[in-house]
Structure formats: structure tokens, C-alpha cells
Design goal:
With about 575 residues, the chain is an alpha+beta fold. It is built from 16 helices and 22 strands. It has helices at about 55-65, 120-125, 125-130, 135-155, 195-205, 245-260, 275-280, 300, 310, 330-340, 370-380, 395-410, 490-500, 505-515, 530-540, 570-575; strands at about 20-30, 35-40, 45-50, 70-80, 90-105, 160, 180, 190, 210-220, 230-240, 270-275, 295, 315-320, 350-355, 360, 385-395, 425, 430-435, 440-445, 470-475, 480-485, 525-530. The strands form five sheets. The protein has an eight-stranded mixed sheet with strand order 6-9-10-22-21-20-17-11, sandwiched between helices. A five-stranded mixed β-barrel has the order 1-2-3-5-4. It has a five-stranded antiparallel sheet with strand order 12-13-16-14-15. Strand 2 (about 35-40) and strand 3 form a beta hairpin. Helix 4 (about 135-155) crosses helix 6 (about 245-260), helix 4 (about 135-155) packs across helix 15 (about 530-540) and helix 13 runs antiparallel to helix 14.
Length: about 575
């Protein structure tokens, strides 16, 4: 055999044992007549000792080893004289009696260490080397353990895992589909699923009352840190349930995984916040509640001073940054520049300081008296030493800008600790959102989301005010996942399609199979999907889901390692009956 032990399992109790190890050379050090080689595999690192006085030929062979050579070592376990408390194997070393080079290695393009000198693009190009790094491997090990524990939990609660198709029909609602040409059906295309939504509903019609799947999904959309063109969902659906049943079931799953991975107990039920309150207090439907700085609305206190910026604004909102009254003018100008960035989009920012001695300073002091400014500060519950930051403009747009400023200040003040976790449910989302450009309503979630039973009578009279029976799980300002109670009544589903501007023919073309299924006794049902990549990244304390995916794409949707997407041969295009139209530019 190539090895009798791994490089991570030997301990002081193994001293005297004869062992065979195999792995990669992490580093080697020559010290006088001794050569020390750190041998690494997936399980850890073990120090190997070659003594020139004992076997000069063996020591010469060790001195010829390069980084990332694959070698087999035979030897005896001995207690280390100089122990390394940072390694689980740090109490022992191997006194080498034999060495065999199994494979040589070129000099790697970056160091295979936690603090590597490789940039993102270089590491993505050589991802198979990046995966050797301890910190990256741990992320994938965490992903593996979580996947197994999620399956165990759901199995214990009566869920059955069912695979659904990857080649499906394009139903353009939500993000863009990735499409796949069909050779056997020229001119026709499959789509890759954005989620198994319709199939899991069909499984409910089929009587599989508790379904789940850890499943790949695909969305052709612009990328960012928490998005990839292909990603993994924990997809779940239940029959004969109401919203409360779904929330309780999957709050239990989230609490279980936090306990399993982080040994964190959430004794109390997760807070619940309506979508309207989330937007009013945080300007986001996924508020980060690890820290305060809730929005303060000031419009009624700012009118009539002759300051057009605030007089003419639809909305005036503020946050109070604790202990920041000492910010210099330069720091305040930097904050103003931040909110003016295109990613935020504000035209400017105002501020009021409440000094430690109780005096007030403000960028709008020439328009408002200290008494008026003090009322602003009192509404924000500001304390001496605090700083109030103010934005104004259209309501929804300004709230979103203020949310960006709030998150920025939270990071600046160290209030967004990745090892602190704040979870909540956001509920009562709007069922529809209006698009000015197309002059029609779109489903905020998807067209199968059930309206709140209390609002059904408003579907025709006040469509935009109808609430959905929908919910999102939010952790540390990240949407971990979400779902809804589904429409199971074919007449109500027809009504929903009509309100979304789909003709009967169009609805039947896109969703006829589901509409037909509902005619055969569809049970009440609902569910949700968690972003599995995101869940792992949150528990790993990472900002990007890319770091928990074995072979991710970059921000342009490219796989740097295999150079995909790429052009295909003309013969393949001809077989698919596809012509490529070149961009004239």
C-alpha cells in the first residue's frame, strides 16, 4: 500500500511505530547535517527528519525534493525535541528510513499556503492547486458536513429526496434562462432550471407530501460576491401546511445546523418583521440586525426653513452613528463621496453632530436653529458624542441609499462581526411589483405565490397593495432563502396569470402542464429554498460564496481554469442548425 497512516493522524501514543506516509512536500529546510521536510495531505502535516550521519544517500535524496513533489516516506515515529503546538501532529516526527518520489512537480505559480501570494485570477486558473490550501479545503469539508447533516435532519422529519430534471422548458419569469439547443428537435431549446419550482409543486400533486433536494440551479444574471451562474439550493416543499408550519419546520433546520456547526443555541424563536417595516427601518428586505442605526424619519421636522433640498424632498431620513461626533471634516467629506458613488447614487449628505458638551454642529446650521436640530437628534435618540447622517429624495430610492450608508458605517465601526449571528424572518411581502417601463405588474417572487387570504378581495380593486403569503430567512443581512405558500386552486392561478398580463394562450403554453395537474386534486402546499452556498459561506465567515464552491466562475461568468464558455466547432453548429451572428463591433 502507498500509506499506512495519513499526515494528520499520528500522535505521541504512536511513538516507536513503523509507518508509511504519502503526500505532497509543503516545504523543506536544511539545517547542518539534518534535513526537515513537511509532508502534507488532506488530513494535515507531519514533519519528516533526514539525518546525514545516519544515511547520507537518503539525506541527499531529500535535499533534491521540490515544493509539491509527491513522495512516499517510510520511517519510525519519534517524539519531537522542539514541539509545535500549532500542529495536531506537533508532538512527533518521522525519522525517515526510505523515500520514493512518486511524481515530480513544476514550481507552482503561487505558494500553497493559507497566506498565499496568488491573486484571485491566478488561483482560479490553477484552482486544483488552490484546493490544496488548508483554508480552502476546510470550506469544502464544512460544505460536505453540512450537506450530510441537512439530509439527516430532513430525513428524520419525513422528507424524501427526489431528483428533478435539468433539461426543462423555458418559462421566462425572474432571471434569464440558460438555454440548450436540441439536436433532435432543430430550432427548439431546453432551459436549465432557475429552480425546481414547478416540479416540486407537481410532486405535491403526486402525493409526496414532504420533498427536498440539494440541487443545482442556473440563472443567467449579472454576478457579484453572493451570486454564481450555477449555484446550489436546499429545495423543500410540504403539503397540507400553512405559513406557520413552514416557518417552524425550517427555523428548526437552521437552528439545528447552527448548533451542529458552531455550537450556537438559539433558545428564542427568530424575530419576524414585515416587509414594510424592514423597508421603513432599514431600507432593505434583508436587514442586517447585528447592530442598530435604524432609520429616523425627519420630513415633518425639516419643512419650512427655505432649504429646498429638504423642503422639496419626498423623504428625509437619517441614521445615528454612535460615538462618531469626533469625525473630522475630511472623514465627513469621504462619507459624502461614498454616498455619491454610482453604486449608491445619492446627490449629497448632510450631518449633525451632538458634541460631548451638548453643543451642536451641522452642515445645515445656517438653515436650521440649534433648537430645531436638537429635535432631530432627540427623535434619533442621539447621545452626546453621536453623529447624525441625513439623506433626502424619493422615498424608496433614498431608503436604499441610506441602507448602503448604514451598512458602510456598520463596517467602519466594526459592528458587523462575522462570528456574531442575527437571524430573522421577513414576512408579508407585496405580491406584485409595478414596472413603469412595461406598464404592468410582475410577481415579486413567482407567479405561483398565494396572496394573503385577507387581501384576496383586493386583487382587482387595489392590486399593488395585496400581500403575498411569502417569507424570507435573513441572516446577517443576507437572504439565506425564502419561499411561500403556493396557489393550489386552478381558478385563483388563472386569475394570477391574468393580473400578470399573461393571456390564456400564453399561460397555457408556458404552464399548461401545471394548470392541468391542479385539476386533479392539488393539496394545499408551500415551501422554501435556502441558498446552500450562501449558508456555508455565512457559517465559514466568508463574504463570497465563490470560496465554498470547488470550481467557481469569476465575476464575468468565466471558468478561468478550463477557459469556458468557449466557441464550438462549426460542425457542431451545423448539426444543431445554429448560425452565429457576429457582433459588428
Amino acid at each position: 500500500m502507498f500509506r499506512t497512516k495519513t499526515c494528520g493522524e499520528l500522535r505521541i501514543s504512536d511513538v516507536g511505530s513503523e509507518v508509511i506516509l504519502a503526500g505532497w512536500v509543503q516545504r523543506s529546510r536544511k539545517m547542518g547535517g539534518m534535513t526537515f521536510v513537511d509532508l502534507r495531505d488532506r488530513y494535515g502535516i507531519t514533519q519528516i527528519v533526514f539525518d546525514n550521519d545516519t544515511d547520507s544517500a537518503l539525506c541527499d535524496a531529500a535535499n533534491k525534493l521540490g515544493r509539491e513533489f509527491v513522495v512516499q516516506i517510510t520511517g519510525k515515529v519519534a517524539e519531537r525535541t522542539s514541539k509545535n503546538a500549532n500542529l495536531p501532529t506537533g508532538d512527533i516526527e518521522i525519522l525517515a528510513t526510505g523515500i520514493k518520489v512518486l511524481n515530480k512537480s513544476d514550481v507552482p505559480p503561487f505558494t500553497i499556503e493559507d497566506n498565499t501570494d496568488g491573486g484571485d485570477d491566478l488561483r482560479m486558473k490553477y484552482r486544483y492547486l488552490d484546493l490544496r490550501r488548508n483554508c480552502v479545503r476546510k470550506n469544502l469539508e464544512l460544505r460536505h458536513r453540512m450537506a450530510f447533516e441537512i439530509r439527516r435532519y430532513l430525513d428524520s422529519h419525513g422528507f424524501i429526496e427526489v431528483e428533478t430534471p435539468v433539461l426543462i422548458k423555458s418559462t421566462p419569469e425572474g432571471a434569464r434562462d440558460f438555454v440548450v439547443p436540441s439536436r433532435m428537435n432543430p430550432g427548439e431549446f431546453y432551459a436549465l432550471p432557475q429552480s425546481p419550482q414547478t416540479f416540486k409543486q407537481l410532486l405535491m400533486v403526486s402525493g409526496f407530501d414532504r420533498y427536498f433536494q440539494i440541487v443545482k440551479c442556473f440563472r443567467d444574471e449579472d454576478l457579484r460576491a453572493d451570486r454564481q451562474p450555477e449555484f446550489t439550493q436546499i429545495d423543500c416543499e410540504m403539503s397540507f401546511v400553512e405559513q406557520e408550519d413552514v416557518l417552524n419546520m425550517f427555523e428548526g433546520l437552521v437552528k439545528h445546523i447552527f448548533k451542529y456547526v458552531k455550537d450556537i443555541d438559539f433558545a428564542e424563536p427568530f424575530p419576524r418583521m414585515t416587509w414594510a417595516d424592514a423597508m421603513r427601518l432599514y431600507g432593505s428586505d434583508k436587514p442586517d440586525t447585528r447592530f442598530g442605526m435604524q432609520f429616523v424619519e425627519l420630513k415633518d421636522l425639516t419643512e419650512g426653513a427655505g432649504f429646498a433640498v429638504l423642503d422639496d424632498a419626498e423623504y428625509v431620513g437619517a441614521i445615528v452613528a454612535p460615538g462618531c461626533a469626533g469625525y473630522t471634516r475630511k472623514q465627513l467629506d469621504q462619507l459624502t463621496d461614498y454616498v455619491k458613488r454610482p453604486q449608491v447614487g445619492a446627490k449629497g449628505m448632510m450631518w449633525v453632530k451632538l458634541e460631548q458638551d451638548g453643543s451642536i454642529k451641522s452642515s445645515v446650521g445656517k438653515f436650521y436653529s440649534d433648537d430645531t436640530l436638537r429635535k432631530w437628534l432627540e427623535r434619533g435618540a442621539a447621545n452626546p458624542g453621536d453623529l447624525m447622517l441625513i439623506l433626502a429624495g424619493p422615498t424608496m430610492k433614498t431608503r436604499k441609499q441610506l441602507n448602503e450608508l448604514r451598512l458602510h458605517m456598520g463596517s467602519e465601526l466594526g459592528l458587523r462581526d462575522p462570528q456574531k449571528f442575527s437571524c430573522l424572518w421577513v414576512v408579508d411581502f407585496p405580491l406584485f411589483e409595478w414596472d413603469d417601463e412595461t406598464q404592468r405588474y410582475y410577481a415579486m417572487h413567482h407567479p405561483f405565490t398565494a396572496p394573503n387570504p385577507d387581501d384576496i378581495q383586493m386583487l382587482d380593486s387595489d392590486t399593488g397593495a395585496v400581500r403575498a403569503t411569502a417569507y424570507d430567512m435573513v441572516v446577517n443581512g443576507n437572504e439565506l432563502g425564502g419561499g411561500s405558500i403556493r396557489i393550489h386552486d386552478s381558478e385563483l392561478q388563472d386569475k394570477m396569470f391574468h393580473l400578470l398580463g399573461l393571456s390564456e394562450e400564453e399561460a397555457r403554453y408556458k404552464f399548461g402542464f401545471l394548470m392541468d395537474a391542479f385539476k386533479y386534486g392539488a393539496p394545499p402546499h408551500g415551501g422554501l429554498a435556502f441558498g446552500f452556498d450562501r449558508f456555508v459561506s455565512i457559517l465559514a465567515g466568508l463574504d463570497s460564496i465563490r470560496d465554498v464552491i470547488a470550481f467557481p466562475k469569476n465575476n464575468s461568468g468565466r471558468d478561468m481554469m478550463i477557459d469556458a464558455p468557449s466557441e464550438i466547432d462549426q460542425s457542431q453548429l451545423d448539426e444543431l442548425k445554429i448560425d452565429i451572428v457576429k457582433d459588428p463591433e
